[in-house]
Recover the amino acids of this structure.
């Protein structure tokens, strides 16, 4: 199975030169550490930053530089700071080419639930609603099952919906899945994982690509 870092590295391979990219909280933040050599992207954080760099090394953190998840970050040459109104203006205007989000659940129709668990304290939806409504392309980085061992890739989300029909691709510790009219199409499988294991842990519609290959990590 893939580690969280390997999930992030696989998603980083989707980045294209010149992309403006928003990274959500959790596994998505790790993508900043694996941008392919020769690919130049601009990372956007909805709390008001263009030009986010990788995480700082221990002892080099600046408490005044944080991302939307309140994690300390670094900047790159040419970074720009601005207020959240301008930041969300960029998002709502469709200026972000790719958004990478974490999720609690994803349906085989591309619906995503990632902001609230009923009965548990929540600080607010943050930028999730704007990002899923406006992003040109959304990739989800998530664990395939929850702590109880239950599938998070479902035919229908049970938790409160963040966005409908917006997710294009999901990367988990088990594989890479495109979402299309057939449901979850597994196009890559993690080393050491079997197709039967993926089937057992996926409760939404699942099809196996004729060109299925092993993830290169």
């Amino acid at each position: 199975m893939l580690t969280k870092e390997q999930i992030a590295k696989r998603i980083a391979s989707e980045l294209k030169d010149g992309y403006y990219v928003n990274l959500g909280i959790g596994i998505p933040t790790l993508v900043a550490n694996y941008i392919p050599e020769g690919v130049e992207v601009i990372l956007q954080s909805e709390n008001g930053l263009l030009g986010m760099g990788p995480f700082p090394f221990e002892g080099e953190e600046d408490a005044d530089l944080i991302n939307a998840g309140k994690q300390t970050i670094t900047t790159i040459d040419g970074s720009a700071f601005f207020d959240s109104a301008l930041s969300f203006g960029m998002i709502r205007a469709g200026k972000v080419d790719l958004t990478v989000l974490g999720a609690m659940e994803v349906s085989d129709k591309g619906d995503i639930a990632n902001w609230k668990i009923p009965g548990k304290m929540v600080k607010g939806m943050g930028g999730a609603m704007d990002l899923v409504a406006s992003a040109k392309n959304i990739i989800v980085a998530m664990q395939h099952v929850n702590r109880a061992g239950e599938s998070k890739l479902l035919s229908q989300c049970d938790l409160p919906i963040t966005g409908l029909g917006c997710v294009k691709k999901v990367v988990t510790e088990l594989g890479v899945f495109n979402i299309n009219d057939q449901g979850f199409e597994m196009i890559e499988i993690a080393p050491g994982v079997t197709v039967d294991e993926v089937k057992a842990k996926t409760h939404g519609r699942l099809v196996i690509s004729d060109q299925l290959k092993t993830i290169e990590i």
Notes: The radius of gyration is 17 Å. The mean pLDDT is 93. The first strand starts at residue 20 and ends at 23.
